[in-house]
């Protein structure tokens, strides 16, 4: 998934993340790139009736998340007691983080599956936070291409666990600079690039993707994608320039602007932590089978409740999403229930399930240390 630091975000080298809740060995069918055909067939057959997106769910969730988030931000800006400011900031971060997570749904959504949702998301969140959907659309789906996943052509993969553990901390901390990067991208580089075709090429190919592979270069958009790109890039640029000018002239109080930037920064850090445990990051560039791609990904299913906060909008079922990328987020819990009940303990399906965020992070750190020791 979803994004990382700024435009192209680094994800260091693959991770051995040992299983947390059930320390189960991988099924033999997956160890040599072979497919767990039974799991793949069951996933397809048991979920045929779950692929329709429900607009009422999408719109209600997005509007409620954005509304609660901006209300929390307002409290963080105007409240006098420190505790009220902090409470408002926490509410803003968590609610707007959930709103942000819908960018992942946008990248998979079929045209008009939820009419007007892309525009609505950009208006409610993408443009105000200077992170329009163009940063993810046309990029994230490459991560799901069977021949790209885990290779150097995957925009969202680098083998994290083959490097030192300190790299993981850098990976997370650098995401705090996201709001500065977005202001530079949309408030400075976007307008300047109109004057220089060479700069424009750099901005489009290198600074217009929420990716984690620094080698990734995106292709320029065409057709309808180009028209959409122009609309939302222009809107984000106008807002970025206005934000800087209004803050510099005192129309926006400096404290209010800094609070806004701090909340966006915290959202980016939270998302980066989630990205850190979205996969095991074990692959070092070779093409992988569908089963191995699934096993390199992470589910954090119920009964735990915290995962719904740090991995919202279906992201707690990230491995299942890699198995069924076209399934809308609200259908993933039911799909997981069906597959869990249908597939026995010997199935690969159960080997991508974990219990806690902390356990995943600890295992990732251990994997890095083991790799460094050789």
TrEMBL record:
The keyword Transmembrane applies. Keywords: Membrane, Transmembrane, Transmembrane helix. It comes from the Bacteria. Residues 82-351 form the Fatty acid desaturase domain. It holds the Pfam family FA_desaturase. GO terms for biological process: lipid metabolic process. The chain crosses the membrane at residues 56-76, 82-100, 112-131, 165-188, 237-270. The keyword Membrane applies. This is Fatty acid desaturase. The lineage of its organism: Bacteria, Pseudomonadati, Pseudomonadota, Alphaproteobacteria, Sphingomonadales.
